[in-house]
Amino acid sequence: MTTVVEKDLLAALATIPDPHTGTDFVSRQAVQNLRIQGGSVAFDVVLGYPAQSLASTLAAQLEAAARSVAGVQSASAQVRWHIQSHAVQPGLRPLPGVKNIIAVASGKGGVGKSTTSANLALALAAEGARVGVLDADIYGPSQPLLFGVEGQPELAEGMDNMMQPLENYGVQVMSIGFLLDNPDQAMIWRGPMAVQALEQMLRQTHWQDLDYLIIDLPPGTGDIQLTMSQRIPVTGAVIVTTPQDIALLDARKGIQMFEKVHVPILGLVENMAVHICSNCGHVEHIFGQDGGQQLAQAKQLPLLASLPLSLDIRQQADRGCPSVVAQPDGQAAGIYKQLAHQVAARVAQTDVFSAVQASPSISIRKQK
């Protein structure tokens, strides 16, 4: 009987790349607990991101690679994941109960940022992660409607001034919309009041062992966005835009803001990229063509996903059952799941922040 050589086995496993990082599992030391007993081999592969939908396919590929080695008669691969807390801005500590915070932002309103936030959270949860959503759009909260939840949060038992998040579809949710007596009530607050409300919701919510907290930011680059980047430990940001020139112009400003405060940008999402007529199949680029791709290339960022202008996405969001749960095998859900894979994989590769955040300064010079 041919003796299985561990070196040959590892070399064979190294031929299978991680589908979302392109690197091999051996060099990343993701292959663990390797056991060789005669002609039988078994091992674990530990990913840094959730991959429920990929696990069986990936395990089959690794097992096939192992069986190609001389002497191997049977192979068993166990694919699992361990999500770690990654770097945050210098001087900030991770939020208790939260491993990673992902900010979803846009330069302007109406580009589908909140719908993207909800579906991203649901897709991450479907892949096996523990996920929460914080609706940081104080003036126009959308997440209560998107998740189909209402009511007021209860106080966490045995914890002073801590609220339990509401939950639906396996995702923990907190929004200013839950704290209003009337859902039509307008928040007529100045910037400092909105910022204080955001920080209270973030820090006084009893987030329960989250791998990812998705924060749905309001559009623009104002007080709330600056507070997020300077006082809240953000792992990375996702920028949402449409192909329209005016949306891309504002998206550039959002990218520039995160760059200046040293928050890594995980990539761009392009919404309403194309419309396909449901009657005749005619394809029309209503808001322009390839604008998101061109911006991503110009900024050397990945285009994480490109979604169509879809009646189904809108209708599902409006009835509180977003695409990932309404049609989990549909085209839109598939794109959102790929988005989740890309975001989680990039978070897993996030390194330390490049520089210390410097506070802005104002200098007054006497005019000559």
Properties at a glance:
Rossmann fold, 8-stranded mixed β-sheet, 368 residues, GMP Synthetase, Chain A, domain 3, alpha/beta, disordered C terminus, 2 domains, 11 helices, 3-stranded mixed β-sheet
Parts with pLDDT < 50 across at least 5 consecutive residues: 352-366
Please give the share of residues in helix: 25-40%
The total tally of domains equals 2
The side-by-side strand order for the widest beta sheet comes to 6-7-5-8-4-9-10-13
CATH class of the largest domain: Alpha Beta
Shape: globular
CATH architecture of the largest domain: 3-Layer(aba) Sandwich
- Give a quick account of the main beta sheet: strands, pairing sense, barrel closure: 8 strands, mixed
Q: What is the CATH homologous superfamily assignment of the largest domain? A: P-loop containing nucleotide triphosphate hydrolases
Would you tell me the structural class of the helices and strands? alpha/beta
Please report which band the strand proportion falls in: under 5%, 5-15%, 15-25%, 25-35%, 35-45% or over 45%: 15-25%
Total number of beta strands: 13
SSE order in H/E notation? HEEHEEHEHEEHEHEHEEEHEHHH
Overall pLDDT, averaged?
87
CA-based gyration radius: 23 Å
Helical stretch tally? 11
What gap, in angstroms, lies between the N and C termini? 92 Å
CATH third-level topology of the largest domain: Rossmann fold
